[in-house]
């Protein structure tokens, strides 16, 4: 059966009474801020076509599910087989010393684990003990708020946010507060107006600040070390799924260092080194906290991988180290800095390689090199094809951009290039895209003086530039902001 590759609209769009798309899934009361939305209040579709934006679909690996018929036994025979198997299992476990019924540690009697020994790892598990989740929730819940937004008289939305200091600063996702005309934060049953302090669109992060709040009512969250996480580690997601405030779900770290890019109406957001978790994350969880077993913030819940629009056990969080670093820059009044190389590139695939007789069948083709940029100083030229960054293959233009975002300003990366029939390696010291913003301000001053230099990009132009770089094949298949 042929796979349906029809692009699906983002989570939260449903036909309302007027048959127009709505981020909230239904039209909100224009006079109030109501929960129940997916946390995105942007002008979420092209007004000329009345079509919602969506993450472009990429090729996916077909999964074949093989169904086998279970053999059916008579009821009494099934019972006998079950009793026999159960007895054998109990006997085997008892003989091995691995089964104890008194609630003590699982493991061999009298044994202890030491370095270099062959003893099995001892794990204490009590499935009826909910004290960990209760303790973590009690500690972290007061630091997570609901964020209600009003864009205009007909659109409202809800997301989540995390209190990070006693001044009332809250970190959340940019798409939660995008184009908001009014923001209200709910904390401990009370409502507070909030204002936007600053945003970083390309990272999908923002900082908002509560107005007229007593600092004694604020509980800043403890920040954990997101760089020391391990797959299998226990986590809790906290937020307002579907507008249900102060909700928690638990799970584990499913994987680390997941990266993707999601184009939207306002530009492309690059998500690098994300934490993947199976803790339930749904629309409205955006901007909320992912915490560890100590109740410490390790991530900002941001997107989900889903074909249904709700949790499928595959959620992603921006690591706390990165999110808090961006938040601190915003609070300090700085423009968040990201790695900058100074290239425009397009994707190379097998088809384009044959059509244009290129020297590589995949990679990032250099279309232009900015004068004085790190790429120019490293000797990269137009028509070079970048095939590797350090030890990682570069398979496309968006793959190159995502790989760059996984590094920091000032890092040196080694790029492998194909130039004609030759292969060479160059070292590039990454600069800062803050210079783009500085050029923007300089350009504005020049424009007021009448020289109209136009030799820079605004932040929106830079985001559009990123989107052009990523083309129509960027974005993780099925990924949605929640």
How would you explain this protein's 3D organization?
The chain is built from 9 helices and 21 strands. Mean pLDDT is 72; it is low at 1-120, 443-459 and 464-477. Among the domains are: 226-334, Trypsin-like serine proteases (Thrombin, subunit H); 339-473, Pdz3 Domain. Helix content is 20%, strand content 29%. It has a 6-stranded antiparallel barrel with strand order 1-2-3-6-5-4. Strands 7-8-9-12-11-10 form a 6-stranded antiparallel beta barrel, surrounded by 4 helices. Strands 14, 15, 16, 17, 18 and 19 form a 6-stranded antiparallel sheet that branches. With 482 residues, it is of the alpha+beta class.
Order of adjacent strands in the largest pleated sheet: 1-2-3-6-5-4
Low-confidence sequence ranges: 1-120, 443-459, 464-477
Helix count, DSSP H or I runs of 4 or more residues: 9
Query: What percent of the residues sit in helical stretches (DSSP H or I)?
Result: 10-25%
Proportion of beta-strand residues: 25-35%
What is the subunit arrangement here?
single chain
Average pLDDT rating: 72
How does CATH name the architecture of the domain at 339-473? Roll
| CATH topology-level name of the domain at 339-473 | Pdz3 Domain
Structure summary, number of beta strands: 21
Return the CATH class of the domain at 339-473.
Mainly Beta
Distance between the termini: 30 Å
Overall geometric form: elongated
Helix and strand composition category: alpha+beta
Main sheet, how many strands, which sense, barrel?
A: 6 strands, antiparallel, barrel
Could you spell the SSE succession in H and E letters?
A: HHEEEHEEEEEEEEEHEEHEHEEHEEEHHE
- CATH superfamily membership of the domain at 339-473, which one? PDZ domain
């Amino acid at each position: 059966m042929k796979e349906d590759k029809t692009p699906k609209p983002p989570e939260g769009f449903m036909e309302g009474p007027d048959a127009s798309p709505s981020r909230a899934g239904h039209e909100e009361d224009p006079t109030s801020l109501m929960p129940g939305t997916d946390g995105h209040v942007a002008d979420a579709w092209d007004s000329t076509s009345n079509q919602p934006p969506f993450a472009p679909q990429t090729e996916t690996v077909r999964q074949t599910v093989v169904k086998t018929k279970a053999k059916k036994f008579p009821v009494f025979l099934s019972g006998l087989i079950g009793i026999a198997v159960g007895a054998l299992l109990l006997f085997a476990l008892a003989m091995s010393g691995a089964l104890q019924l008194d609630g003590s540690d699982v493991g061999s009697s009298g044994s202890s684990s030491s370095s270099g020994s062959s003893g099995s790892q001892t794990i204490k598990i009590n499935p009826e003990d909910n004290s960990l989740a209760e303790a973590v929730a009690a500690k972290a819940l007061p630091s997570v708020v609901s964020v209600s937004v009003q864009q205009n008289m007909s659109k409202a939305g809800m997301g989540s946010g995390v209190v990070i200091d006693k001044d009332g600063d809250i970190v959340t996702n940019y798409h939660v507060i995008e184009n908001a005309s009014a923001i209200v934060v709910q904390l401990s049953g009370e409502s507070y107006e909030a204002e936007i302090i600053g945003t970083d669109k390309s990272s999908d992060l923002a900082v908002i600040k509560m107005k007229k709040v007593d600092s004694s009512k604020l509980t800043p969250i403890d920040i954990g070390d997101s760089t020391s996480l391990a797959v299998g580690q226990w986590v809790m997601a906290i937020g307002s799924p579907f507008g249900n405030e102060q909700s928690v779900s638990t799970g584990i770290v499913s994987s680390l260092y997941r990266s993707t890019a999601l184009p939207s109406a306002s530009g492309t957001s690059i998500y690098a080194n994300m934490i993947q978790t199976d803790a339930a994350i749904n629309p409205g969880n955006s901007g909320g906290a992912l915490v560890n077993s100590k109740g410490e913030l390790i991530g900002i819940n941001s997107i989900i991988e889903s074909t249904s629009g709700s949790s499928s056990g595959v959620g992603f969080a921006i690591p706390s180290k990165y999110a808090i670093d961006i938040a601190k820059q915003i609070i300090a009044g700085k423009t968040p800095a990201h790695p900058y190389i100074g290239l425009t590139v397009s994707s190379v695939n097998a088809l384009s390689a044959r059509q244009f007789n290129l020297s590589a069948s995949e990679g990032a083709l250099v279309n232009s090199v900015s004068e004085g940029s790190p790429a120019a100083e490293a000797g990269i030229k137009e028509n070079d094809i970048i095939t590797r960054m350090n030890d990682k293959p570069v398979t496309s233009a968006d793959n190159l951009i995502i790989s760059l975002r996984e590094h920091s300003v000032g890092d040196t990366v080694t790029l492998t290039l194909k130039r004609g029939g030759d292969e060479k390696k160059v070292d590039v010291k990454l600069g800062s895209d803050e210079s783009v913003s500085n050029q923007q301000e300089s350009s504005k001053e020049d424009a007021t003086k009448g020289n109209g230099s136009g030799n820079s990009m605004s932040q929106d132009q830079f985001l559009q530039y990123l989107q052009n770089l990523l083309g129509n094949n960027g974005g993780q298949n099925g990924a949605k902001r929640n």
